[in-house]
Every structure is written in C-alpha cells, then in structure tokens.
Amino acid sequence: MCREYTSLDKQEIEKIKEVSRQLQLIADLTGTNVFIDCQIKDSTNAIVVAEASPSTGKTLYHEPYVGTVVYEQFEPSVFLSLRTGKSVLFNKAVTQRGIFVKQSVTPIKNDNGQVIGMLIKEENEPREMERMKSLSPATEMLWELFFFTDHERPALSDIMKEHFILVDASTNIVYANPSAKTFIAEVYNIDGCEGKPAEEALPFIKPVIHSNKDLVIEEIQVAKFFLEVKKVDIYKQDQVKGMLILIRDVTDLRMKERELVVKSVVIREIHHRVKNNLQAVASLLRLQIRKGVSEESRGYLTDSLNRVMSIASVYEIILASDNVDNDEVDIVGLSNKIAQMLIQNGGCEQTALELRCHGEQILADSKKAVSIALVVNELVQNSIKHAFKHRSSGVIDVRFTRQESDVTLSVSDNGTGMRKEVKRSLGLDIVKNLIEHDLSGEYYIGSSSTGTTVIVSFTLEQEGVKEYEEADFTGGR
Ligand SMILES: Nc1ncnc2c1ncn2[C@@H]1O[C@H](COP(=O)(O)OP(=O)(O)OP(=O)(O)O)[C@@H](O)[C@H]1O
Ligand SMILES: [Mg+2]
After folding, report:
1. Cα→Cα distances 19→22, 57, 80, 313, Å
2. How many Å apart are CA 79 and CA 139, to the nearest integer?
3. 341 lines ligand 1 (CB under 6 A)
4. 418 CB less than 6 Å from ligand 1?
5. Which ligand 1 atom is at minimum distance from the Cα of 413?
6. Would you say the CB of residue 426 lies under 6 angstroms from ligand 1?
7. Domains 160-249 and 327-477 share a fold
8. Radius of gyration of the chain, Cα coordinates, nearest whole angstrom
C-alpha cells in the first residue's frame, strides 16, 4: 500500500513496517484502536496503511479502516502532526464515521528527521452521551432551520447555493433542496426528482454513491460544469441508513484558475519574445563587427552590444525562475552575470582580472532591474577599459548592501584611478541619468592612485508605496 499510494522510499517503508509490527501490542496494552496514516503522494490527503484493535477490550470500529482516505477537515490533528513533526495528544475529534473519540497522534520520522507517517491512537470519548444530550436541542434547532419553512421564512436548505441531496439506503432521493432540483431539471430535464433513483437523476454520482467508503470527496466534470461532490454515509446503530450528498459548483473557480494559467503562459511568451528580439539585435551588431569596421566604430558597436546583452540578462533571469508572473529579479545575481559576461568578452586581454561579487539576494521589479543592469554594465566596463592600462592583474569588486528598502551598490577597482581632467562621455551620462531619473537615487565617484570607487544609493519602494505613487503620478513616461 505504501508503494502504491505514497512517495516513501524502500528504507522509509521498512521503518513503517517495523512500527506496524508493534501495533497489536500497543493496542492491547492501551486498550485503544491504533493506526498508521501516511500522506498520499501528490495529494493533501492521507491513507490508513495499518491498524490494530485491542483484542483485550472493546473496539471502536467494526469495519476495517486500512485503505481509507483521511481528509484534513475530519482529522486535523493528524495533519498538524504531519506538518509540525510534533505529537498532538488527547485531542477530541469526531471521526469520518461520526464517532466521538479522544485522539493522540505522534509522528514517525525517517533517519533525516522528516515525517513519513503518523501513529494514531483513538479511544472512546467518555462524555459522548452527555455531549449528545446537550447536542439534542441544538440538533432540533438545526433540523428545523434546515428543512422547515413557512410562507414568510425560507429554510436554510432553500437558500443554500450548494446542491443538497438526501438519499435513502436503496439510493433513492428522499430530499433535494431547490438549488439541486433546479440543477437536475436544467441539466437532465427531470422535474420532481424526489423518489427517483439518485443515479438516474444525477448519473455522474453513480461511482460516488456505490463507493463503500463512508466519506467521498471528488471533483467531477460534467459537460461544462466542474462539480465538487461530497458523500457522507448516514449511520444508525451501525447500519447505513442513507447518505447525504453535497454538490458545489466550482466552475467559476476552475475557469479563473485556467485564466491565470493562460495569463502566465502569455507573460512568459512576451518575456521570451523580448529576450529573443534583444538577442537578435545583439547578433546583428556582432555580425557588423565581424564584417570589418574601423577600430573606432568597433569600440562603439561593442559598447552597444554589451548594453543590449545586459538588458537581455534581465529577461533571461526572469525566464529561468519558476514564477514568471511575479516580475522580480535578483539584482545581485544579475550584476554578477553581467560583470562575468563583460570580463569574458574581453577588452582587457593583457590583464588577469579577478571579479568579486558580494551581497545577499535583493529583489527588484524588472523595470528597476533593467536600469541597474545598465548602470553595472557601464561601471564594470569602465574598470575593464580604463583602470588597468599596462597592468598585469587587477581586481573589480561589485558589492551590494541593503538596509530595509535602501540599497547601496559599490563598484570599485584597484586600478590607476581617473585622470584629473576627465572627459565625460556617454557611459557616465547613462549612469547619471538612470540613477537620478529611473532609480531616484544618488551616486558618488571617488578616485585616487589606488583605484576608483563608484557608490550608488537608491531605494526599492515597498509594494503599497509604489501603487500609491503610480496612481497619483500623471507625468513621466
Ligand atoms: N574605473 C575607471 N578607472 C579609470 N578611469 C576611468 C574609470 N571610469 C571612468 N574613467 C575615465 O572617465 C572617462 C569617462 O567615462 P565614460 O564612461 O563616461 O566614457 P568612456 O568609458 O570613455 O566611453 P563610453 O561612452 O563608451 O562609456 C573615461 O574616458 C575614463 O578616462
Ligand atoms: Mg564608459
């Protein structure tokens, strides 16, 4: 059963088997019913893989439980233990078969401390009768609220959106609320479904009503509808007297989910196209360089090529992440990628360059990431091009630090430093424009005979602030 339903490996199954060999002993010693539940693979539900009832005393259940699917709604302690890895003791619960029990759960763990199963002990809750007594006025009220109506007040079942159907032991419908009746009339053209066999009025629930499980929760697609069907057996003195069927229309929900998936696919496709187009531009520039151009033009074309490739890196990173929708890029990883690309592309062949990149992950939206990519490109490119003339080695250091939403980027080298009368060109103009306008930040250039350091500081706004600004800002691009 473990092999068929769970994702446990051989060693873990061996461990479950080892515990299961002791189950009878535990059941006899404690006089309680004992189970092992394991999580079903690719599912949020669990399955009972082993059980023992006390041979010394009274058992809670007469039907076997092994193979039964366990749902979180009914046995929250089991799933709490599964998630936290901690024991949950003496929790009062109503089992899927409607029996009041005192339940204790302790996790079974593998050698790495991961939970592979839950050992469960269930015993009779002694105050069951008292509770049932105190429940009876409530039961009475609920019953009235549910089914009895007069001309002025509708019953609860009348205004329920869910289709609510009661079926007797021979699976004939004894009650269907108005919403269920309308559904049956609209979809199957049957008026007055009460008294008819349930599988005739609602053919798709046939496997559900004939399931020998006490509780079934299934999603079924019928024509254009997605329906969540729940079936609970109704017991009286250990005999199945009928069943309650609840059907919820989840079509809108599934359609919305589908739309979201489609949206994600479209966003991914757009990112792909942007990236491919940028790479096509880069290829054209490369082709032009190879065709043989003057040394001066070659320099300009290579600079443009690097700028285009830096922007393309932003989209490569977005596309490599699992979730393309959230539009966030780690600017530290991005800068590292760009600096490495620039060093590999050359421009400083006589110098052995060492790149040091520091900083923990910092996420920025793609618009900001493009600006940061271009700033890093210009600054690292300047170090490669100007700092190490006639030197055999050099270090370029790219460092990010962050304090809440304030980010500081420093790009430094241990090169010759800038000449006194620096002639500003396009590179530093791009840096200035991007920092002051797109990043709303500041920068500082420090240069001496031991090298050059450029410090850039800017703020990454929090979501709320960004939305407010976007809503009120009418200028700009
Ligand atoms: N890290 C550095 N080390 C030494 N000199 C530098 C450094 N960074 C910039 N410079 C000096 O500052 C000048 C201006 O830089 P800027 O990036 O504006 O232009 P550029 O690199 O010459 O050309 P481009 O427009 O292609 O970037 C450079 O020509 C160079 O002399
Ligand atoms: Mg430059």
Report:
1. 5, 22, 20, 53
2. 29
3. no
4. yes
5. 1
6. yes
7. no
8. 34
The domain defined by 2-126 folds into: Beta-Lactamase (3.30.450)
For residue 88, how far is its CA from the centre of ligand 2 (angstroms)?
Answer: 64
Per-block mean pLDDT, blocks of 10 residues, the chain (477 long):
93 94 91 93 91 83 85 82 85 70 89 92 68 62 64 68 89 88 86 88 90 87 89 82 91 91 88 94 93 87 94 92 79 95 83 91 92 96 92 94 94 92 85 94 94 95 48 39
Task: Supply the residue whose CA is at minimum distance from atom 9 of ligand 1.
Answer: 382
For a pocket test of ligand 1, which of 296, 348, 386, 448 has the largest count of ligand atoms closer than 8 A to its C-beta? 386
Q: Where are the domains of the chain?
A: 2-126, 129-153, 160-249, 264-326, 327-477
Reference 405, options 348, 450, 466; nearest CA is 466
Rounded Cα distance between 413 and 390, Å, is 15
Q: What is the pLDDT of residue 188?
A: 85
Is the shortest distance between the CB of 303 and ligand 1 below 6 Å? yes
Which CATH superfamily is 327-477 part of?
Histidine kinase-like ATPase, C-terminal domain (3.30.565.10)
